[in-house]
Write a structure and sequence with these properties.
Layout (H helix, E strand, L loop, with lengths): L2 E5 L3 H14 L4 E5 L2 H10 L4 E5 L7 H11 L5 E5 L4 H10 L3 E4 L4 H38 L7 H14 L5 E4 L6 H10 L8 E5 L5 H9 E2 L11 E2 L1 H4 L4 E5 L6 H13 L1 E2 L8 E2 L3 E6 L3 H6 L5 H7 L2 E4 L10 H16 L8 H8 L6 H15 L6 H7 L3
Parallel strand pairs: 1-2, 1-3, 3-4, 4-5, 6-13, 6-14, 7-10, 10-13
Antiparallel strand pairs: 8-9, 11-12
Helix pairs in contact: 2-3, 6-7, 13-15, 14-16
């Protein structure tokens, strides 16, 4: 049961307030404090849906009680009452955070109305706080799925950038070698952003034939080309309200690059075979394993598109450059593989870990996971350096 605290040094007044309000609000429990200090001790011990406080009291005034309470419990709702009130006092209390100010002698009808409104406001604030906490927990769950494993300085720097950029809508270009975790960075940015409840649409630009990339990105209308048997929405339209991840954008044709540039400039797309323009609201994250500066020099990538995409650039290091993260990665993969297979996780002894740290990881994180799975299947328990030598191709 929620509680209301009455802080009043005149027992006759506190008794009347308790009697009237308990009749009006039987669903609430009431506590009475005889001065500000006693009131603050109540507040330190438990939360109150509402505090009704006199201003002029011994030990701690109502104004001080208001300030001290909001310093430790800022969501507490206060109604202040006083028989020594003036405009400045009332305004001062409201500025300090009180919900309302009522002069003595108290107008009972006005008090009841103010109390009910204050309780409604407090309950709404509590509901909003709970919702924010739920959203925060949801984001944490999503973030855990795309958690970047490791404690290396390089990885910490990337996470710091992700934390800063995720809250904005800035476009991000993620660079790095194959298998290093570029997709992981993109998902982490999306999951920590305000767009996390919207879709995350992924497009592998290298896997789509150049003649189909425009249709894939922007959609098409029926009959616009052979095989277009019905209208189809494109990835940009599907990502509205969320994020589109253009993976391996360095492999996109110059024609498609021009179309993407226009979409970024105008936030509009035109389906293939249509003059209709569709408004899109998307955040764009792109990734590539290529050196786009060299691609631009060779005329294979548009410089204007590069500058549109790389508002923030995040470079993901190779696994060889963060070998200190391998022990944590091996532990993570071992546990996740065991969970997937419903089996107990194997251990890797120290020499096995050291051998893995000395390996040349051309395939980066992706290759490491495959190797860990192979060693779990074929190696001893615990996995030894001899297992690594036997089952890992150099």
């Amino acid at each position: 049961m929620q509680k209301i605290l009455i802080v009043e040094d005149e027992k006759a007044i506190s008794g009347v307030l308790h009697s009237i309000l308990s009749d009006e609000l039987p669903e609430y429990q009431f506590e009475i404090a005889e001065d500000g200090l006693e009131g603050f001790k109540f507040i330190e011990k438990e939360d109150f849906a509402l505090v009704i406080s006199d201003i002029k009291m011994p030990k701690i005034s109502g104004t001080e009680l208001l300030k001290q309470t909001l310093a430790i419990k800022p969501e507490t709702t206060f109604i202040m009452i006083s028989g020594h009130a003036d405009i400045d006092t009332a305004v001062g209390c409201l500025r300090e955070g009180a919900y309302d100010f009522i002069s003595k002698p108290i107008d009972i009808n006005r008090l009841i109305t103010s109390v009910k409104n204050a309780l409604d406001k407090g309950n709404l604030q509590k509901a909003n706080t709970n919702l924010k906490q739920e959203n925060s927990q949801l984001k944490k769950k999503v973030n855990k799925k795309y958690q970047m494993i490791g404690q290396s300085p390089a990885l910490k720097k990337i996470q710091e950038i992700i934390d800063k950029v995720a809250v904005s809508d800035a476009r991000v270009l993620v660079t790095g070698p194959n298998g290093a975790g570029k997709e992981l960075v993109a998902h982490a940015i999306h999951s920590q952003s305000e767009r996390s409840r919207g879709p995350m649409i992924e497009v592998n630009c290298a896997a789509i034939p150049s003649e189909l990339i425009e249709s894939e990105l922007f959609g098409h209308v029926k009959g616009s080309f052979t095989g277009a048997i019905k209208d189809k929405s494109g990835k940009f339209e599907q990502a509205t309200g969320g994020t589109i991840f253009l993976d391996e954008i360095g492999d996109m044709s110059l024609v498609a690059q021009a179309k993407v540039l226009r979409a970024l400039q105008e936030s509009k797309v035109s389906p293939v075979g249509s003059d209709k323009e569709i408004k899109v609201d998307v955040r764009v994250i792109a990734a590539t394993n290529k050196n786009l500066a060299k691609e631009i020099e060779q005329g294979k990538f548009r410089e204007d598109l590069y500058h549109r995409l790389s508002v923030i650039e995040i470079s993901v290091p190779s696994l060889n450059d963060r070998a200190e993260d391998i022990p944590l990665l091996v532990e993570h993969f071992t546990n996740s593989i065991a969970s997937e297979n419903g089996s107990a996780a194997k251990k890797f002894d120290d020499k096995a870990i050291k051998s893995l740290q000395q390996y040349d990881w051309t395939g980066n994180i992706r290759e490491l996971r495959n190797v860990v799975e192979r060693l779990i299947i074929l190696g001893a328990d615990p996995v030894t350096a001899d297992d690594v030598a036997s089952f890992v191709k150099k």
